[in-house]
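Limitations
The structure tokens in this dataset are predictions for the assembled complex, not deposited experimental models. Users should treat interface geometry with appropriate caution, especially where small molecules or nucleic acid strands are included. An illustrative entry is reproduced here so readers can see what is and is not provided.
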Amino acid sequence: DAGVTQSPTHLIKTRGQQVTLRCSPKSGHDTVSWYQQALGQGPQFIFQYYEEEERQRGNFPDRFSGHQFPNYSSELNVNALLLGDSALYLCASSLAQGNTEAFFGQGTRLTVV
Amino acid sequence: KQEVTQIPAALSVPEGENLVLNCSFTDSAIYNLQWFRQDPGKGLTSLLLIQSSQREQTSGRLNASLDKSSGRSTLYIAASQPGDSATYLCAVNKGTYKYIFGTGTRLKVLA
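Predicted assembly:
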């Protein structure tokens, strides 16, 4: 079992550009959530996808969007990048049914210059 | 609005000490609480999951307790080792896997 995998591991982008981050959930999991973790802070919930639809959303602007594919993998897109978007982006997978653990990937470190 | 606080923010102890990390949350209507470990620049590793109906969970040298009514959880680490050095995060789940995290406790275990 490969667990939760994220790509790429590191990324450097320029202000104003767009970025796409990818996540493959743990085998058997159907729900993917995305978190943003600024340096020295706890992760902040961005949004969650289940059955290819956004099910919940945190307090993030519309520049942040996502997608879930039929195989449950997911993408996080950020448009018009700001310096403040520099952070570690974490993907978590879980089962919609049942009260079980959430598993996190190793994250994508995004640096906006 | 659920808020999660972790105390202390940082902790430095000599190897072999037993230690307690604290997590408090403002809304007791939680589904479960999960403790994670995070090494610098890395993702989160799940340590223990406590369901709302449970009082504690144990895994090796780790023991986590939950007192939902008072909004508190503790992570007890026995016989600490330098390899335990990391940031420890607690997160509460209200039932939809939207985790609310604390800011973590940075632990350093000195050899």
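Some entries come with short summary sentences. For this one: The two ends of chain B are 41 Å apart (CA to CA).
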